[in-house]
Amino acid sequence: MHVVILSGSTVGSKTKTAMLAVEKVLQQRKDLTIELIDLKDYDLVFSDGRHYLDYTGDTKIVTEKLMQADILMIGTPIFQASIPGTLKNVFDLLPTKALEKKVVGLVVTAGSAKHYLVIEQQLKPILSYMKAVVSSNYVFIEEQDFHLKSIVNDDVHFRIQTLVEDTLLLKEAYDEMWKKKEDQYDF
């Protein structure tokens, strides 16, 4: 399985720190191909309605990598009670059914516990619209869980471990269900 880890911000360090922790857990599985996309490292253009294959440069690279993934682990900070525009732009660059049959795990960094509903009211509806299968649990990490670009709360590490395991299990279960469905047809 091909797992793409997306650090969905071009500023700050907490989201990338969290996604590196996700990557470390994923690396325990030798049967996975893991790729980290940190939006800081790419120069994406704003979506203008073109088909994703019509973009060039970093924009084409990122969209194609996302389209080729089996599993997405998306990390996002919460800014001004919303996901960052850079992450929203990534979704706008993709076609509507871009995430069909892809399982998505979410990791959120925020300065306040009051922002947990942003994921429920903004990010999950976008992912559902794009046909993703979203893991029911996600990891919400607050400011106090970090110190010197490290996660210092052991519970956060445990929740990341659980999220990764649950997301992989969900992907395996859905693959089995889709295979049974496809096997019903004779062609």
Structure description:
- By secondary structure, the protein is of the alpha/beta class.
- Helix content is 41%, strand content 20%.
- It has five helices and eight strands.
- Strands 1, 2, 3, 4, 5 and 6 form a six-stranded parallel sheet that branches. Strands 7-8 form a two-stranded antiparallel sheet.
- Strand 4 (103-110), helix 4 and strand 5 form a beta-alpha-beta unit.
- The longest helix is centred in the C-terminal third of the chain and has 30 residues, at 154-183.
- The protein is globular.
- 34% of the residues are buried.
Largest sheet: 6 strands, parallel
In CATH, the topology is named Rossmann fold
How many beta strands in the DSSP annotation? Answer: 8
Distance between the termini: 25 Å
Low-confidence stretches: none
Which word captures the global form? globular
Please identify the top-level CATH class: Alpha Beta
How many domains make up the coordinates?
Answer: 1
Strand proportion, as a percent range, falls in: 15-25%
Q: Which percent bin holds the helix content?
A: 40-55%
Radius of gyration (CA) equals 16 Å
According to CATH, the homologous superfamily is Flavodoxin domain
CATH architectural arrangement: 3-Layer(aba) Sandwich
**Class by alpha and beta content:** alpha/beta
Overall pLDDT metric:
96
- Could you give the order of the helices and strands? EHEHEHEHEEEEH
- Count of separate DSSP helical elements: 5
InterPro entries: Flavoprotein-like_sf, FMN_Rdtase-like_dom, NAD(P)H-dep_FMN_reductase
Pfam families: FMN_red
GO molecular function: oxidoreductase activity
Keywords: Flavoprotein, FMN, Oxidoreductase
